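Data deposition worksheet. Section B asks for the primary sequence of the deposited chain exactly as it was used as input, without tags or linkers unless they were present during the calculation. Section C holds the resulting structure in token form. Section D is free text for depositor observations; keep each observation to a single sentence. Incomplete worksheets are returned to the depositor.
Section A, Depositor: J.P.
Section B:
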Amino acid sequence: MTGDAVDATAVLSRTGDAGGERHDPWVPWTVTDASPDEVIHPRDLQAAIDRAVVTGVRRHIRLTRGEGEGPVIVPRAAPPLTITAPDGARLSAAIDAQMPGAEYRRRFAGRFDGSPPPVRAVVDAICARDIITTHNSGVVRIEADDTTLRGLTVENTYACDRAAAAPEGAVPDARGRFAQGQHQAVALHVAGADRVHLEGLVLLSFQDTLYLQHPRPFSTARTYLTGCEIAGDVDFIFGQATAVFDRCRITSRGERGASTWVAAPATNIATPFGFVFDRCTFDDDGHIAAGGALLGRQWFEGVRTSPYRGDLDCRMADVSGQGTISCATLESVGKCRVQNSVLGAHLAGDPWGPWTGPDSARHRPVQRNRAEMAGLLGAWLAREGVTLPESAGPWLGVADCIRD
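Section C:
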């Protein structure tokens, strides 16, 4: 196993623009919760968040046991919120990326009729879309900085059964689930928020369970997860943000027969850290053969035409389209380190995979550092007049891990 271990304090100490991050020490494991300001059933969580948005006052909301329905939205305008729950508090909904906006409106919009404008604006924007996309498929959406969640189970119960999201001719299994297609269904979406603390959560879905999104292109924000259980199959921990996973259990699901990658980071080349897994356990659900899953692949976000395909004409442009690639897409190199962890037998000996295969127009091979990227793209970079930003250290690494 290769790669140097890194310290969580260092990983979480910087935030902001890629390559120009500001020093902002953050040590969430030292914070203790104040007494709850209110105790409510999970079904009333959105109403409690709405009240906090209106008052603008920091709140500690304690949930009782029970089940509530998503989506739940913590808008950017919310004050710092701490939401804690005992075992048995659960939020769920079936929401997928290919859902039409009209369906989202019919199923969910009425629930937000009494919400304040910052919440309604999020809901209205989703409802206005033809297709809601991955970015809007979360059961819980956190936009506000300094949000803490403890002890809650969040499940996206979408069953990968939307025929329109499957390839033509695909046959579902006995439970109606498709193994191929665009079945993104986010459980928890940290939507550009910084200093988000997640403790003791259970996050469940198939594809795209946990989305850790940056605030804007060429930037990062931070999430700290400790003692969480996260399960899924395709790219089920993904995004552009910086995150530390401390003593989490990461479970790859093979039950629907999909190809399985744990992580799909899209970290900017100049951002020091992407995902860091420390003292974690990687296991599976018993449906994956030995060596049948990968730790991750680097999300080539937004790519339509790849400069790594020498037979394709790809030019730098403001947007990524057919025959063009933007700076944001080119620089979404993806960084992931796994250290001091237990790796199950389901993970391949070479744990990293390409974004897509060499025959795909979106192909990008595994890139472990800036030198490898420059070596692969040297002639193309020179032709396009592109100089890669500096980027220290390995982008991918596995250090001091054991095989189970």
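Section D:
The longest strand covers residues 59-63.
The mean pLDDT is 97.
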